Amino acid sequence: MKFTSVWFIGALMTISAVAYTQPTYDPECYAKAQYAQDAQRCNQIRHQHFDRILNQSYQALLKKQSKTGQKSLRQIQRAWLQERDDVCHELVAKAVVSAGQIGDACFADWTEERALTMRVWLQKNKRF
Protein backbone atom coordinates (compact mmCIF):
# COMPACT_ATOMS: atom_id res chain seq x y z
CA MET A 1 0.00 0.00 0.00
CA LYS A 2 2.81 2.45 0.85
CA PHE A 3 4.52 1.81 -2.49
CA THR A 4 1.29 2.53 -4.39
CA SER A 5 0.73 5.77 -2.43
CA VAL A 6 4.28 6.96 -3.02
CA TRP A 7 4.05 6.11 -6.72
CA PHE A 8 0.69 7.90 -7.02
CA ILE A 9 1.98 11.06 -5.30
CA GLY A 10 5.09 11.03 -7.51
CA ALA A 11 2.93 10.68 -10.61
CA LEU A 12 0.72 13.58 -9.52
CA MET A 13 3.76 15.80 -8.91
CA THR A 14 5.12 14.97 -12.37
CA ILE A 15 1.78 15.71 -14.04
CA SER A 16 1.47 19.04 -12.20
CA ALA A 17 5.01 20.08 -13.17
CA VAL A 18 4.27 19.29 -16.81
CA ALA A 19 0.93 21.11 -16.70
CA TYR A 20 2.48 24.33 -15.39
CA THR A 21 5.58 24.37 -17.60
CA GLN A 22 5.72 27.49 -19.75
CA PRO A 23 6.47 26.96 -23.43
CA THR A 24 9.96 28.10 -24.39
CA TYR A 25 10.30 31.02 -26.76
CA ASP A 26 11.92 30.02 -30.05
CA PRO A 27 12.90 32.87 -32.39
CA GLU A 28 12.66 30.37 -35.27
CA CYS A 29 9.07 29.48 -34.39
CA TYR A 30 7.57 31.32 -37.38
CA ALA A 31 9.87 29.55 -39.83
CA LYS A 32 8.70 26.23 -38.42
CA ALA A 33 5.00 27.13 -38.46
CA GLN A 34 3.02 25.11 -40.96
CA TYR A 35 -0.45 26.51 -40.29
CA ALA A 36 -1.96 29.83 -39.26
CA GLN A 37 -2.67 28.39 -35.81
CA ASP A 38 1.03 27.57 -35.43
CA ALA A 39 2.00 31.17 -36.21
CA GLN A 40 -0.63 32.41 -33.79
CA ARG A 41 0.79 30.15 -31.06
CA CYS A 42 4.26 31.56 -31.85
CA ASN A 43 2.91 35.05 -31.18
CA GLN A 44 1.30 33.94 -27.93
CA ILE A 45 4.53 32.35 -26.70
CA ARG A 46 6.57 35.39 -27.82
CA HIS A 47 4.15 37.68 -25.98
CA GLN A 48 4.45 35.60 -22.78
CA HIS A 49 8.25 35.52 -23.07
CA PHE A 50 8.66 39.27 -23.50
CA ASP A 51 5.96 40.01 -20.94
CA ARG A 52 8.07 38.18 -18.33
CA ILE A 53 11.15 40.18 -19.38
CA LEU A 54 9.14 43.40 -19.30
CA ASN A 55 7.77 42.69 -15.83
CA GLN A 56 11.19 41.74 -14.42
CA SER A 57 12.84 44.82 -15.91
CA TYR A 58 10.00 47.09 -14.78
CA GLN A 59 10.18 45.81 -11.20
CA ALA A 60 13.98 46.19 -11.12
CA LEU A 61 13.82 49.67 -12.62
CA LEU A 62 11.08 50.68 -10.19
CA LYS A 63 13.29 49.72 -7.23
CA LYS A 64 16.04 52.05 -8.47
CA GLN A 65 13.76 55.09 -8.57
CA SER A 66 13.05 57.74 -5.97
CA LYS A 67 9.44 57.98 -4.77
CA THR A 68 8.78 60.65 -7.39
CA GLY A 69 10.52 58.55 -10.04
CA GLN A 70 8.43 55.52 -9.10
CA LYS A 71 5.26 57.55 -9.49
CA SER A 72 6.40 58.86 -12.89
CA LEU A 73 7.42 55.40 -14.11
CA ARG A 74 4.07 53.96 -13.05
CA GLN A 75 2.22 56.71 -14.93
CA ILE A 76 4.39 56.19 -18.02
CA GLN A 77 3.84 52.43 -17.93
CA ARG A 78 0.07 52.75 -17.43
CA ALA A 79 -0.13 55.17 -20.37
CA TRP A 80 1.88 52.73 -22.50
CA LEU A 81 -0.39 49.83 -21.52
CA GLN A 82 -3.47 51.88 -22.41
CA GLU A 83 -2.00 52.87 -25.79
CA ARG A 84 -0.98 49.27 -26.58
CA ASP A 85 -4.41 47.97 -25.64
CA ASP A 86 -6.23 50.66 -27.63
CA VAL A 87 -4.12 50.12 -30.76
CA CYS A 88 -4.33 46.32 -30.66
CA HIS A 89 -8.05 46.25 -29.87
CA GLU A 90 -8.69 48.67 -32.73
CA LEU A 91 -6.75 46.44 -35.15
CA VAL A 92 -8.75 43.42 -34.02
CA ALA A 93 -12.04 45.32 -34.35
CA LYS A 94 -11.19 46.28 -37.94
CA ALA A 95 -10.06 42.80 -38.93
CA VAL A 96 -12.32 40.96 -41.31
CA VAL A 97 -10.44 37.68 -41.01
CA SER A 98 -7.72 36.38 -38.71
CA ALA A 99 -8.59 38.76 -35.88
CA GLY A 100 -7.03 36.42 -33.32
CA GLN A 101 -3.76 36.26 -35.21
CA ILE A 102 -3.69 40.02 -35.72
CA GLY A 103 -4.39 40.67 -32.04
CA ASP A 104 -1.79 38.18 -30.81
CA ALA A 105 0.83 39.59 -33.20
CA CYS A 106 0.04 43.15 -32.12
CA PHE A 107 0.35 42.39 -28.40
CA ALA A 108 3.54 40.40 -29.01
CA ASP A 109 5.10 43.19 -31.11
CA TRP A 110 4.28 45.95 -28.64
CA THR A 111 5.35 43.91 -25.62
CA GLU A 112 8.62 42.81 -27.22
CA GLU A 113 9.51 46.39 -28.14
CA ARG A 114 8.65 47.67 -24.65
CA ALA A 115 10.54 44.86 -22.91
CA LEU A 116 13.68 45.66 -24.89
CA THR A 117 13.26 49.39 -24.21
CA MET A 118 12.74 48.75 -20.49
CA ARG A 119 15.84 46.56 -20.42
CA VAL A 120 17.92 49.36 -22.00
CA TRP A 121 16.54 51.83 -19.45
CA LEU A 122 17.55 49.45 -16.69
CA GLN A 123 21.05 49.00 -18.10
CA LYS A 124 21.49 52.76 -18.45
CA ASN A 125 20.15 53.31 -14.93
CA LYS A 126 17.52 55.70 -16.30
CA ARG A 127 15.84 58.00 -13.78
CA PHE A 128 12.28 59.27 -14.04
From TrEMBL:
It holds the Pfam family LprI. This is Lysozyme inhibitor LprI family protein. Keywords: Signal. The keyword Ribonucleoprotein does not apply. It comes from Vitreoscilla stercoraria. The keyword Transmembrane does not apply. Residues 1-19 form the signal peptide. Residues 29-115 form the Lysozyme inhibitor LprI-like N-terminal domain.
